[in-house]
Amino acid sequence: MVVMAMAAAGLVATQSVAAPAPDTALPGGIVVKDGVTQPVYAAAAVINERIWVQTTIDTDADGALDRVAIDIERPAGHARVATILTASPYWQCCQDVANHPVDVNRLPQESLTLGQGQTQDVSSLLAAQATTANRMAAEISARYVPRGYAAVQAQTIGTADSDGCPTSGDHNETLSVKAVIDWLAGRGKGFDESGRPAKATWSTGKVGMIGVSYNGTLPQQVATTGVKGLKTIVPISAISSWYDYYRANGLVVAPGTYQGEDTDILARFVISDRQKKICEPMIRALERDQDRVTGDWSPFWQDRDYVRTANRIKASVFVVHGLNDWNVKTQHVEQFWDVLARNNVPRKIWWHQGGHGGPSDAGEYTLPNGRVSNFDDTVNRWMDHWLYGVNNGIEQEPRAIIERENLTYRTYSNWPDNRVRKQTYSLTSLGGGRRVQSFVDRGAIRTAEQLVAPGVANPNRLAYRTKQLTKATRISGTVRLDLRLSVDNRRDANVTGLLVDYAPNGTASIVSRGWIDPQNRVSIKRSLPLVQGKRYRLSFGMQPKDYVFAAGHRIGLVVISTDFDYTLRPSVGTKLSLSPRASSVTLPIVG
């Protein structure tokens, strides 16, 4: 019965896996056992050095090419070793900084003046994120240097001891990290602490990159250059488009828990003390060009979009992300993953049930051949295969590893699931009736969690639900909305869609969210005025999910305006109207 229930929910997937190669010894004394390198190098026999790598850019406009500082930790001896590189702006950060105000009289795209609102000092939150990212880098060194790797930590431009200015994800930042890989591959210029030219004579020229959050975004950036020598990347909770980090379909939308943050705030947060003054003009340009008024796509955002250039990637990619990450939302995975799939990039994906960062547990799972593996072992075998050519069969294992709602891991042949069938429901069929329905925005003082609560009718939302599910129902991918909606008494409004799991005990859990600016109903590149009271078609997707609604639950769609924790928060009172029979929701249902 358990297997039958799993099959009904689309949770059973198998794939043959080759047995790992026998134990081997690689040049230089590197030992492989059970398909994974072993920690045979003594901690005492480690070389540490600081190098400054010369880039091809001058972001601080001082007339000299920027140099980035890198710290190297590698096993002693004559062996040439592969490198695991972590690039980060966080090594010596951070500055005190306050975010932009988000409480406003009217939305700025209504061409009215912004209210003063309240600012949020998020320095402590960002600092905690930086600490987490740096802790992982230390763990990488501790695990991989004894196994015969060099661990290299690069300080991005404008941060710590590096020259230049932080540019929040643009092409200059990308080139600064590419220069490090070029140096490791013997192509670039580097200098030791005395200023003498330095070469990476100890390097095989093969590099893997790994990191969390910003540190995970940088590998994706650099991989899109197709740089030679970068063999694999493991981006964890990584941004694939900065527009989709700070905007959503024309709206200014914050990363979770960082209301009011933007590219300029991030640059001010990570910048080194010695670069603050010289980089002030550049940061002011970030503030101007990011455009917190219209929310439109522009060349500024195109320069920070790695989905557009992901077809240039030559490295293999192992994506790791939390299904409940509301900082770097799951859209960043799906859109990047889609390009990798279209271009047949060797790839693997790991979804866990946590939020921002890597798995919170060991991530233990069983492969189809019976081998028990876990997260660290899987990443280790991935690095060994792509950087040392270890024939451990990992490229033949199931492509997707997903932690289910009961916190057990299962393997799948792909993601989204190949068995997905898109099913569209009109909102009339979900209890919406046939008449136009209206609601009034109070999201500036009510959270989305409060607005989705079941019970009596709520004049500040519209709610639609399926009947109780007769069996477990799994979705895999993106839920899409097609709404016919008007803004009745203002020139614009936030529009938010919420996918909700309604349990028989009366609780409601938000599964996914999506946002759109009605002025960007045609394109994210251009805002078009609204006519009050005129219904427009708004088509947009929610954040992708892999989620199982249990039998007896109901799948709900709730439409609200302002999303307290994510969108700008105009004063209450905006009236919106929706036609249920002309609106629909499309679910990616497995099986």
Major beta sheet, strand line-up = 10-9-4-5-8-6-11-12-15-16-19-20
Annotation field: number of helices:
12
Output the radius of gyration: 25 Å
- When the domains are counted, the total is 2
The name of the CATH architecture of the largest domain is: 3-Layer(aba) Sandwich
Task: Annotate the secondary structure layout.
Blueprint: H1 2-8, E1 24-26, E2 30-33, E3 36-37, E4 46-54, E5 67-75, E6 81-88, E7 103-104, H2 123-144, E8 149-155, H3 171-184, E9 190-191, E10 197-198, E11 203-212, H4 214-223, E12 230-236, H5 243-246, E13 247-248, E14 251-252, H6 263-270, H7 276-289, H8 299-302, E15 316-322, H9 331-342, E16 347-352, E17 365-366, E18 372-373, H10 375-388, E19 400-403, E20 409-412, E21 420-426, H11 428-432, E22 437-440, H12 448-451, E23 462-465, E24 473-477, E25 480-487, E26 495-502, E27 508-516, E28 536-541, E29 545-549, E30 554-560, E31 569-570, E32 575-578, E33 584-590
Parallel strand pairs: 6-8, 6-11, 7-31, 11-12, 12-15, 15-16, 16-19
Antiparallel strand pairs: 1-2, 2-3, 4-5, 4-9, 5-8, 9-10, 13-14, 17-18, 19-20, 21-33, 22-32, 23-30, 24-29, 25-28, 25-32, 25-33, 26-27, 26-30
Helix pairs in contact: 6-7
Write structural notes for this entry.
- The structure is a single chain.
- By secondary structure, this protein is of the alpha+beta class.
- It folds into 2 domains: 291 residues, Rossmann fold (3-Layer(aba) Sandwich); 171 residues, Sandwich (Jelly Rolls), CATH 2.60.120.260.
- A 12-stranded mixed sheet has the order 10-9-4-5-8-6-11-12-15-16-19-20, with helices on both faces. Strands 21, 22, 25, 28, 32 and 33 form a 6-stranded antiparallel sheet that branches. A 4-stranded antiparallel sheet has the order 23-30-26-27.
- A hairpin with a 5-residue loop joins strand 19 and strand 20.
- Helix 6 packs antiparallel against helix 7.
- It is globular, with a radius of gyration of 25 Å.
- The N terminus is likely disordered.
